[in-house]
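Input chain follows. Return structure tokens only.
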Amino acid sequence: MNDRSRLFETELEALFHVSRVLSRSLNLHKTLLAVLEVLHDHAGMQRGMVALVDPDSGEMLVSALHDGDPDRAGSVRYRSGEGVVGAILELGDTVVVERIADEPRFLGRLGLYDPQLPFIGVPIRVGDGAPVGVLAAQPQSDEVALLGERARFLEMVANLAAQSVRLSWEVERERRDLTDERDRLRRQMRGEYGFDNIVGHTPAMRKVFEQVRQVAKWNTTVLIRGESGTGKELIANAIHYNSPRASGTFVKLNCAALPDTLLESELFGHEKGAFTGATAQRKGRFEQADGGTLFLDEIGEISAAFQAKLLRVLQEGEFERVGGTRTLKVDVRIIAATNRDLESEVEAGNFREDLYYRLNVMPIYMPALSERSEDIPELAAFLVNKLSRQQGRELSLTDSAIRLLMRHDWPGNVRELENSLERAAIMSGDGVIDRDAVIQSGLKERVGPAPAASAPVVAVDLNDPGLDERERLIAALEQAGWVQAKAARLLGMTPRQIAYRIQTLNINVRKI
């Protein structure tokens, strides 16, 4: 067998090894090093080097070296046209030199090459575009007559390596896009759940804000107390997204929505085959929230049997998946919420006392809307702006509508207020939510004196030029207790005139 035949077999075997190396890993640096090692061990191509273009600077950065100082990789750069390596990038042509010392463009910047040996450098191309890098190596000195064959072999290796470069760049681009999207979503979540989105200036709400600001700094367990619809989940979000754990996951679970058997699997996960239908291993909410925050809503609804299992996780941070034997340890901050009177539940034996004290480290009490009706105007305006964005149209709220909202008891709290405003917006064809639209939405005005905790209805300046005729008449009727004769005196009108205007302006007169 002649030298050319032996070389052909050697190169064929080397290409086989290169193809196997390229399919092993998405780590481009390790892959390129492994390719250079194959060239050295199986193809007699020594002192291999790969340099790739830096997309930001346009310069070539040495990415991998074989038989050289590994610290030099990543620190040596070539501009297009600079030295023999830069010339390959600029021209896009293979360079073959019988003796590197005779090449005037050779810079020797890497301190890698033997000046007495041949040198082959080939461009790395991704598709039909300009070269994105250079692959270079030195064959043995006795192969000068076969340098053409050696160059073609190195070009084949460069073509194979180019696919790994392309794949690595695509993965990196997708990773960067996902990272940017993640960061954008985090900024959006912080914006949506920041303190600016929790409306309220009453003393009770100012106390809540101060508690949230203080407790957000630490990993303390928080128990949010309050009636349904008061915004407990919003407070939980604000605590997480303003805490050092904001970059971690915020996981939510409504404990009242699941029976014990499913609740255990949801929280702790399960192993494959743990029960009928468990066709694969599944991580539970505790694992998903590792390094972040777990919000357990309606914590007062869990059974006594499950309370003991939950207590262990809260105390030790350890648990086993359903059907598993391996103990898992997690770092999770717990925020719980309930509308139940847990003290009474403990006294009645329905809620474990030790679990109660484990959860009730930092209690935050959310006031009912009826206890902070002074916040209703600002809260209503905030919700109307939210509805405006959702419906893609301009919405406004009249003063008479706001005064009507302030005279309602709101047993469903903020959730009821939001639902009422959404119904009123649907009833408002022109986007103006007035008193009539609120009444048509099904809201019932409080009859009789307002509770002492409610804010007094502020008298409206009937001479305000900003009031249109309809709003001025409604304000006068409200101040007059819906007695038309009294309202007529406030406006300097006769009872007949005011009755006519009520009819022409289509005002729904409140029945006392």
